[in-house]
Design goal:
The complex is a heterodimer of chains A (265) and B (271). Chain A has 265 residues and is mainly α. Chain A is 78% helix and 0% strand. The chains are: A mainly alpha (265), B mainly alpha (271).
Chain lengths: 265, 271
């Protein structure tokens, strides 16, 4: 307790909410409100409508939603596979090797996403790998960008793992593969699950690399929102943005439900 | 079979899909139009006014946003942790949710609030009867700065809240019972404990601000060009790949250098 007087406390809270509400709550509220309006040129929006949502779940917007979901799902699964494989392999290495692998797999976080997009575009537009213009190039870029986060969270979880379990299993004669499959991976399940949620959310909102790469027939939601707002349809764009936020939240919620169940087992 | 063999497949995949493309970008940045190795693209880009302007804009925007995030994040986290109020848990939860949304949504919201026909200007013209409102900063670097501070402050708050939860509150009680005023407790007890988290959070935000693209793109301002924006416009709008690669290499050098520093700092302080 830092402030003891009653007036001091209230003053602190008032300042807190004067900063917090306009900066963080208002933007999300404004997008939500705008998605239900047709016009906004005063203090309050006008022309309440659900028409924006009608457009947001039809035609090209619906296609963008499925595109985003498929991309995020594929990128998360690939990133989790490679990220946790690398993290498990790194944990078995000596200190220098582990540090090198850490640096290598965290590098995509430091490199600007736009540059990752440019690099992938340059490399996979020329033989021997021709992926430009296909959906695979978008999925590939998303995978590269989110693998770092999968690697980081699985790595952190491995450090916290109690080595007693695997030692006990190994001393009872379990082979390394059996220990990995029946002891280590089940213990890592909660953090794998959290990493999956993180990867999915990041991929759903990815715009920078996608803008460099997307083919006309594989346009994810963030690009769709940009093209809508760029041609002036701010209200339709807001509805699509709400769909994006809602879908992300739903998936995160579902993932955390699975996690609670898994940790009770 | 030695253990390092298991590390080979993921490293090989990463090398193919990430390191090889990066190497190609570097190679292309050293290739002149005629196809031979030269520094000509660097000379051209460094000489151009647009590049120098983008570089300064990027750096001062990132520095300004980082300072803003650190100050704002410190104050907000301080209140949540040490002047607890009902619903404080919900606010912390909200911040976690906020982090999972893409950055450009903030700019989209700001368009409604401060845009030329937005809320703030609408209220102003309604009250004063003036022909147009006073808020035109959205398409200037200040609009980008506001959006970046809004979006990245939670990234500072999260490590800070974790660090604050480690502080023994009895230390604060002791300091207070010895007669220390609130500001003195913040300065001499809380701030030293929070420094590692502030350093780590600040470095992370600095790198993310240098790399930010969505916020600048959505602002749609011709006046605000940052390095990532320049990479995009050179490559996609002008199809000038050597120039885009040069800007990309500069951007990588700045960001990776800073990120390396962040890793060293955060490992040293154990955050």
């Amino acid at each position: 307790m830092l402030v003891h007087s009653r007036t001091g406390k209230w003053a602190t809270w008032v300042v807190f909410f004067l900063l917090f509400l306009p900066l963080f709550a208002l933007p999300l509220l404004v997008i939500l409100t705008a998605s239900f309006s047709t016009h906004w040129s005063g203090a309050f929006p006008s022309g309440p409508t659900v028409e924006n949502y009608g457009a947001a779940v039809r035609g090209e917007s619906l296609q963008a939603l499925t595109t985003s979901l498929v991309t995020a799902l594929a990128a998360s699964v690939l990133a989790l596979t490679f990220g946790s494989w690398a993290a498990l392999a790194a944990a078995a290495l000596k200190k220098g090797g582990k540090r090198a692998l850490d640096a290598l797999f965290m590098l995509p976080v430091a490199v600007p996403s736009v540059v990752v997009g440019l690099a992938v575009l340059v490399a996979f537009s020329q033989p021997p790998f021709l992926l430009n213009g296909t959906r695979w190039i978008v999925i590939l870029a998303h995978t590269i960008l989110v693998t770092a986060f999968a690697y980081q969270s699985v790595s952190a979880a491995i450090v916290r793992l109690d080595p007693m379990y695997e030692q006990a299993a190994a001393s009872l004669g379990a082979r390394p593969s059996y220990v990995l499959w029946r002891v280590k991976l089940p213990l890592l399940l909660p953090s794998l699950n959290a990493a999956a949620g993180l990867c999915f959310a990041l991929s759903m909102g990815e715009l920078s690399a996608t803008m460099m790469l997307y083919p006309p027939d594989w346009m994810p939601l963030p690009v769709q929102i940009f093209t809508a707002t760029d041609r002036g349809s701010l209200f339709a764009g807001s509805a699509v943005a709400v769909v994006l936020m809602g879908t992300t939240l739903l998936v995160l919620l579902a993932v955390s439900r699975i996690r609670t169940k898994a940790s009770f087992r | 079979m030695p253990r390092w063999v298991w590390a080979l497949p993921p490293v090989a995949v990463l090398a193919l899909v990430f390191l090889y493309p990066l190497a190609l970008v570097v190679q292309q940045s050293f290739t002149a139009d005629t196809g031979e190795v030269s520094f000509a693209p660097y000379g051209d880009v460094f000489a151009s006014e647009a590049f120098r302007e983008a570089l300064t804009t990027t750096v001062w925007l990132a520095l300004g946003a980082t300072v803003g995030c650190l100050v704002l994040g410190f104050v907000l986290a301080l209140v949540i942790a040490f002047v607890p109020f009902p619903g404080g848990k919900a606010v912390a939860k909200f911040i976690d949710v906020f982090l999972s949304f893409p950055s450009f949504l903030i700019t989209l919201a700001l368009l409604f609030i401060y845009g030329s026909v937005g809320m703030a200007n609408g209220v102003w013209t309604g009250v004063t009867g003036a022909a147009e409102g006073p808020f035109h900063f959205l398409t200037t670097p200040w609009g980008v700065l506001l959006a970046e501070i809004t979006y990245f402050t939670p990234f500072v708050m999260r490590p800070l809240l974790a660090a604050f939860s480690q502080i023994d509150t009895s230390q604060l009680e002791v300091a207070s019972s010895l007669g220390a005023r609130t500001w003195r407790i913040v300065r001499q007890v809380i701030l030293p404990e929070a420094l590692p988290a502030l350093a780590a959070g600040g470095a992370l935000v600095l790198v993310m601000c240098l790399n930010e693209f969505g916020i600048v793109l959505f602002t749609g301002a011709k006046g605000v060009t940052t390095l990532p924006m320049l990479v995009y416009s050179k490559a996609i709008l002008e199809s000038d790949y050597p120039a885009a690669c040069v800007v990309a290499v500069v951007n990588i050098a700045i960001s990776v250098g800073l990120y390396g520093m962040y890793r060293v700092v955060s490992r040293r302080v154990g955050a």
